[in-house]
Design a protein that fits this description.
8 strands; homodimer; five-stranded mixed sheet; DNA-binding
Chain lengths: ~220, ~220
DNA sequence: CTGGATCCACACAGATACTG
DNA sequence: CAGTATCTGTGTGGATCCAG
């Protein structure tokens, strides 16, 4: 798509020319969480062909969205990082994540969740309010945490040992977050277990609520 | 991409599976302005191959994003319209448009602007404030109007004869809107002419301000 | 005229193997 | 670790054709 243009003088078209290709916004999603090395990106995007990853990174670098930095010795590692311009895609990725969350449904066979997908899920579904609380969320091997204080949310990979509430999910939490199950029912169904009360889990579910699953023809 | 999945349990990935294919979000952009017939969509997207348009419309219909309606006789016309689920992509398209507007730059050879691209440009760059005003904006053949009242903006195709300010653009207004030129300089440069004062044009430019052009490597 | 379907050439994505 | 090389298949682009 880099060479292919849409022929329209339009911000949407320009944006899609820059980041509309397959995998591009998923690479950016992962880099929004933290700078990463080539191998880290591959690990977070297991299905991406390596030549496509290499090509995208070059295109994104060319477009001024990503920078490629060689770390000083002794590490010598190569790190990909978003430029400020690339970081401005945050709102685009969050909007996409918010809209797409409603279609998540069941975990499909072979599908994975990473710390990056969970962090962006929390960030995109966050509804600011009056709550002040901290959470540790576990889903299999993947652990992330979130600190909520009114309008502000900090979400990042890794544990938070002294979180107000620790949540262990045994399956996608969509039914809890879209209102299909309330906190009590989700616990009863074995979807989730927590270190706290039903009320605390309900508050969590309200903070990161997603819309109802859309009807499909 | 409909059959091709990203293998990630992630809202962003789901969204891209549904609307991440080439042309899809541009079709949705045009439908966000108003429902359209097949031929109208072709007219607004001159470079889209007809088979791709037909395929996208089927996929989007399948996904519950677009509906295909046959109008009652005598028109019998077929109209494509967004479902409520599809309309929820508004925020995604606006976020993309806002980000991409900064990279618009010059009008490239063969590139066109339509009423739909102008309407979305106004909507995506609108910065709510204390202003109450109405505008008619002309760019070649294309005429759109906007009514601003504090937080609210209504933008739509077509003229608005009794607008507070009529603006005729002879070239893209990016230099005016990104602060490269101020209102006085833009008028002096022949970029634009208006029915009103320099101050009125400056207020317009402030309402629909876009960020600075990103530096590219 | 609208609303597509069909055909072909080709660029790009997918998969895997290989290298500095 | 960070890619490149190669092969294959599918989706896209572009033009044309066709039915109501």
């Amino acid at each position: 798509m880099t060479t292919k243009t849409y022929g329209q003088y339009c911000g949407v078209a320009r944006a899609l020319e820059l980041v509309g290709e397959r995998w591009a916004l998923l690479i950016i999603r992962d880099l929004l969480v933290a700078p990463k090395r080539y191998t880290d990106l591959r690990a977070g995007l297991p299905r991406i062909p390596t030549n496509v990853l290499a090509t995208r990174l070059k295109e994104l670098e060319q477009a001024g969205i990503v920078t490629r930095r060689v770390q000083p010795r002794p590490s010598g590692a190569i790190v990909y990082e978003l430029t400020p311009y690339g970081e401005d895609l945050d709102q685009v990725v969050l909007a996409l994540g918010r809209w797409g969350a409603r279609s998540l449904g069941e975990l499909r066979p072979g599908e994975i969740a990473t710390a990056e997908t969970l962090v962006m899920a929390l960030r995109s579904t966050f509804e600011p309010g009056d709550v002040k609380a901290s959470y540790e969320l576990r889903f299999g091997e993947v652990v992330v945490h979130a600190v909520v204080d009114g309008e502000s949310l900090e979400a990042a990979p890794g544990p938070l040992p002294d979180a107000d509430l620790a949540i262990e999910a045994y399956a996608p939490l969509s039914p809890l977050l879209n209102g299909e199950l309330d906190a009590k029912a989700a616990l009863a169904a074995g979807l989730v277990s927590t270190s706290g009360s039903i009320a605390a889990l309900a508050r969590f579910a309200k903070l990161f609520r997603i819309g109802p699953t859309p009807a499909v023809a």
